[in-house]
Each structure stands twice: as structure tokens, then as C-alpha cells.
TrEMBL record:
<dbReference type="InterPro" id="IPR018199">
    <property type="entry name" value="Ribosomal_eS4_N_CS"/>
</dbReference>
<dbReference type="GO" id="GO:0006412">
    <property type="term" value="P:translation"/>
</dbReference>
<dbReference type="InterPro" id="IPR041982">
    <property type="entry name" value="Ribosomal_eS4_KOW"/>
</dbReference>
<dbReference type="Pfam" id="PF08071">
    <property type="entry name" value="RS4NT"/>
</dbReference>
<keyword id="KW-0687">Ribonucleoprotein</keyword>
<protein>
    <recommendedName>
        <fullName>Small ribosomal subunit protein eS4</fullName>
    </recommendedName>
</protein>
<dbReference type="InterPro" id="IPR000876">
    <property type="entry name" value="Ribosomal_eS4"/>
</dbReference>
<dbReference type="GO" id="GO:0019843">
    <property type="term" value="F:rRNA binding"/>
</dbReference>
<dbReference type="InterPro" id="IPR014722">
    <property type="entry name" value="Rib_uL2_dom2"/>
</dbReference>
<feature type="domain" description="Small ribosomal subunit protein eS4 central region">
    <location>
        <begin position="94"/>
        <end position="164"/>
    </location>
</feature>
<dbReference type="InterPro" id="IPR038237">
    <property type="entry name" value="Ribosomal_eS4_central_sf"/>
</dbReference>
<dbReference type="Pfam" id="PF01479">
    <property type="entry name" value="S4"/>
</dbReference>
<keyword id="KW-0689">Ribosomal protein</keyword>
<dbReference type="InterPro" id="IPR002942">
    <property type="entry name" value="S4_RNA-bd"/>
</dbReference>
<dbReference type="InterPro" id="IPR013845">
    <property type="entry name" value="Ribosomal_eS4_central_region"/>
</dbReference>
<dbReference type="GO" id="GO:0003735">
    <property type="term" value="F:structural constituent of ribosome"/>
</dbReference>
<keyword id="KW-0699">rRNA-binding</keyword>
Length: 236
């Protein structure tokens, strides 16, 4: 069980919704989308969250048969990394889920009806050979696009083809979701964006019916204008 493909459960990221003492080891994500901080191996979704099987061997068989899709594509690696806003589909069960962060800072699954949309935050832009613009997203994936989009904006893509359906601007008045910190899992409207000219992170004020709060800019993802553009299973 030990080696580069596993890590100790007690050392697993706090965002992983797993019991720490049921066994010593847990699968480590394969290289791919999502950092280890914001991603987890697919086996955790299928075994520990959906309880489709108790044993890793049984989960691997389910995947080998092509019964599980991530963002519209069949995935057969039980260690394939999945994370925030990914769409998990099991056609045989007519079930679709969006991976979200709960207020406890742990991943949770939200049942959804439409598995064809994926929300992504733009975290960087680069110019590639030929003068084309490449967008880099929060999950580590990239795509070529026009120069109309800016870092910190979000896009809603149709999956698996990755065509742009909506452009959500990072600006005051937009609906935002907080992914980390003590306000993780909270949905609200951006009330203020404060750019701090130092090494201190920029701050964002989020307004909710329960009151306003401040958080670090990198924890904020725009998810809509007056309402979330996709079903997040969270109310403002």
C-alpha cells in the first residue's frame, strides 16, 4: 500500500471528507488537474462519499467499465484528481453531482440536473506562439480564447467540448462563492474590492443576508450576477 501512490490518512488535506483512522493509507491523486490542496482522488468520491463500493478493487472495476464521467469524459483512473466545480456523472444511475466546498471546509457533492455546464475561474493569461491568448483556470486546465476575458473573471463552459456559454466579470455587484478561510462555503455579493499596494493580499467585502464580511481575494470565485449561473446547492 505504501509508496508514491499513497499517503497517510492523517496527513491528507483537511478538505478531503474521509475518516482519518479507518485505515493507515489513502490513495494520492495522479498528476493532472487540481492541486492537492483543492483536489482529491476520484476513488474518494465513489467510495467515501457516494458509497458505491467498499473496496478499492470494486471501485477500479466500476471505472474500468467506463461507468463514471468527470466533466463529460470517461475517467478510468481511480486516482484521477477531481475538485471544486467538477461535474461527476454516473449515467447508469442517472445521477450527476457538482463538487463543492461546505462551510466546514470539506468537499461535498451537490446533486444537479444539468451535467453539461462547468464553472471555472480564470487565474492567469499568457500569450502563446501565433499571438493567441491562453487562459489558465483554477483547476489547472487551459484553453485558447480571445483577449476579452480577464484574470479573476469566471467562465461557464459547456462540457466536454469546452465552448464558452457565459462570461462572469469580477466586479462589485457580482455573485461570489468563498472557497477557503473561515467563511468557506458562503455565497454572497461582492460589495467592495480593495487593492492593497503591498505584499498583503487584496481584500474583498462580501454581502450576505446575515451581514457583511471580509475575505482574501484569492478565496473568492465569481459565480453569477444576480444568481449563480449554475446550480451550486447553496443559497445566499
Amino acid at each position: 500500500m505504501t509508496g508514491k501512490h499513497h499517503l497517510k490518512r492523517v496527513a491528507a488535506p483537511r478538505s478531503w471528507p474521509i475518516a482519518k483512522k479507518t485505515s493507515k493509507w489513502v490513495a494520492k491523486p495522479s498528476p493532472g488537474p487540481h492541486s492537492e490542496e483543492y483536489g482529491m482522488p476520484l476513488i474518494i468520491v465513489l467510495r467515501d462519499m457516494l458509497h458505491l463500493a467498499d473496496k478499492a478493487k470494486e471501485i477500479r472495476q466500476i471505472l474500468h467499465e467506463g461507468k463514471v464521467l468527470v466533466d463529460g469524459k470517461v475517467r478510468k483512473d481511480h486516482r484521477f484528481p477531481v475538485g471544486l466545480f467538477d461535474v461527476i456523472s454516473i449515467p447508469e444511475l442517472n445521477a450527476n453531482y457538482r463538487v463543492m466546498i461546505g462551510q466546514d471546509g470539506k468537499f461535498k457533492l451537490v446533486p444537479i440536473a444539468d451535467a453539461g455546464m462547468k464553472l471555472l475561474k480564470i487565474v492567469n493569461k499568457t500569450m502563446v506562439p501565433g499571438g493567441k491568448i491562453q487562459l489558465g483556470f483554477h483547476d489547472g486546465t487551459t484553453m485558447l480564447a480571445s483577449n476579452d476575458y480577464h484574470t479573476k473573471d469566471s467562465l461557464v463552459l459547456k462540457v466536454p467540448e469546452k465552448s464558452i456559454d457565459q462570461h462572469l466579470k469580477y466586479e462589485v455587484g457580482s455573485m461570489a462563492f468563498v472557497i477557503d478561510g473561515k467563511h468557506a462555503g458562503t455565497l454572497g455579493k461582492i460589495k467592495d474590492i480593495r487593492v492593497i499596494k503591498s505584499t498583503t493580499p487584496n481584500r474583498v467585502t462580501i454581502s450576505t443576508p446575515q451581514g457583511d464580511f471580509d475575505t482574501v481575494e484569492k478565496y473568492v470565485i465569481v459565480v453569477g450576477r444576480d444568481a449563480p449561473a449554475v446550480d451550486l446547492g447553496v443559497k445566499a
